[in-house]
Structures are given as C-alpha cells and as structure tokens.
Amino acid sequence: MKIAIGCDPNAQDAKVELIKFIESKKLGEVTDFGSEDPIYANVAIEVAEAVAAGKYDRGILICGTGLGVSIAANKVKGAYAALLSDIYSAKRARLSNDANIACMGAFTTGNKLREELTEAFLTNEFVSGCSSQPKVDAFRAYESK
Fold it and tell me: What is the pLDDT of residues 89-100, one digit of tens each?
C-alpha cells in the first residue's frame, strides 16, 4: 500500500513517530509530503490531490486538532477525509464510508492512539456491494454534479 502523509509544523513530531510506526508494522510504503508550510491547507490539498489521482492508496494528515486538514482535504474532488478520534470510527471510516484519508490531531490524540487509529484505518477495506454502498454512491454522485 502506498501512503501519502503530511502535516503542519505543529505536528512534525507526531508525523515522524507515525511514519516509524507504519514502517515498523510494514503497513505500507510512506511518502512524506512535508510539514514546513504553516498553512496546513497547502499540504492537505497536496496529499488529497495525490490520493484522489490514484498515485497513493491512502493519505494521512495531521495538524493541531485534525479539523483544518480534514476540511481542506475534503475540498478536493475524490478525496474522502475522515477525522479519526476513536478506533470504532477509524474502522467505520473504511468499512462504511470508503474514506481514503485519515486526519488526526497532534494536540488531541497521543502517539499510542494515533498508532491504533492508523492501523485500524489502513487494515480495513470497504466492501463493494455492502449495505453502505448506496450511501457512498449518493455522496459520490453529488460530488460529480
């Protein structure tokens, strides 16, 4: 799995720790999109565009709360960013909603929880034809208008 990851300067340490975790668990090949730009929307859009274009299978974005990068990433057509804060939602982001970008907060979640959220997000898959398919189809249809 190819994973694009980026953050704002506030989340640099969290991102570095998460990359180490992903690599140690062999969850995928990580490309770091950086963390120098204080305008988190720039890196969020860059990651979202790369994921939406199919260059990467999943994306991970981190800022102080995860809210800003989530909002910015969701402006990109084909990017489906989910703000993750608990394990159940991290699994459902994939299983029920086919989200392709995980967003987290450096100030709102600790390293261990970020690791657990990431693993849940990366190891679950959307099942085409499941009971959630009509819901996913509905937001994709709206997006294509």
Answer: 999 999 999 999
The values of phi and psi at residue 88, to 5°, are -60, -45
Helix 111-123 × helix 12-24 angle, to 10°: 50
The position carrying tokens 């988190």 is 40
Active site residues: 63
Distance separating alpha carbons of residues 118 and 92, to the nearest angstrom: 13
CA distance 12 to 14: 6
**Inter-CA distances, 89 with 28, 78, 109, Å:** 21, 20, 14
pLDDT at 130: 83
Going across the sheet that includes 58-63, the strands are: 29-32, 2-7, 58-63, 101-105, 81-83
Hey, what amino acid is at 140?
A: R
**How many CB atoms neighbour CB 102 within 10 A?**
29
Closest to 118 measured CA to CA, from 144, 145, 90, 139: 90
